[in-house]
Amino acid sequence: ALALWVLHTHSFDAAYSTPYVNINSPVKGCGKTTNLEILGHLVAKPLFSSNITAPAVFRTVEKYQPTLLIDEADTFLGLNDELRGVLNSGNRKNTAFTIRLVGENYEPKRFSTWCPKVFALIGHLPGTLEDRSIGITMHRKTREEWVEEFNPNKITPELEMLRRKASRWAKDHLDALREADPPIPEELHNRTRDKWRPLLQIAEVAGGEWPELARKAALSLSAGANDEENSTGIKLLADIRALFDSKRSEVLSSEELVEALYEMEDRPWPDWKNGFGISKAQVARLLAPFGIKPKQLWIDEKNQRGYRLEWFEDAFRRYLPRNARSARTQQRQGFQQDWKALETELPSGSENAGNPYKPGVLAVLADGVGKGARTIKGGRDDY
Question: What is the reported pTM?
């Protein structure tokens, strides 16, 4: 991924989006700054900074179009909304601009924010930047692991030669890169597809083993990760889907849902706010943007507020990884498809028409009518 990204910095104007690089680690001493320094010897027009303001970003980018290498991002980036907004804007070529008033007459001027960027930090980037980045997580080596020590004086001439070769390759292949339309793994979608496309285009033009290596890297580093982790609401959807699956139920009361969330020690719900677990009202507020609201239901012979599985199915399809969909949901949908296919084949006067639970219909289903047919014993919960 880093090798392809280096070439991307020399050819990023051939792309319509530029993926950021997020070099992160859980603690200090994992090699982030060394990684950043090596990249600095290879990328186009490198510019290092361990602290930067929003005006400095757009004025510098407008003047130099550098590759920004930002170290210690965890010390200043998280609380600076203006800076995050400017950095976010530089991700897509056609919208990578900010407007400021300049001069004595306060004339509006457009500044470009379009350039490659790499961040090094302990912990996580803010969600919107992380969503635009390819994550490279680093860890400390053990005492038993050995790597050659990085000696800038020794290695710089070799890296400089590689930088010149990368620059020349990019210039020679700009037109081919603009026209390249590489196959993208179907597990990557939306913004994840966008951020990997420029690197996959480079791999496609390079040929040889690079297209396959690039797709493997994309799947290893990005498949499903952003969809499931980049927002609190999507985290909640993923956990609710797991609850429906584990409980093998099509309804959950609000009380039962919150109690189950309390028990997830590796998730944010038990310590949601000021040391208190997430409440039923807070769950409802997180689900509301997805069009999901609790309603009065008859659950366990009691009238109480809760949720039905079917209310979540659209959000599950849209926001959670397709290759990890609930087996329960798939089974339920498969049954519905079987019944729709069968319903069209039943005679209009059949005593079983409209009732999938009568023996005549069950026998036909058991014989394999419809895709994914399954034996059904009795009620809906037995299929």
Answer: 0.68
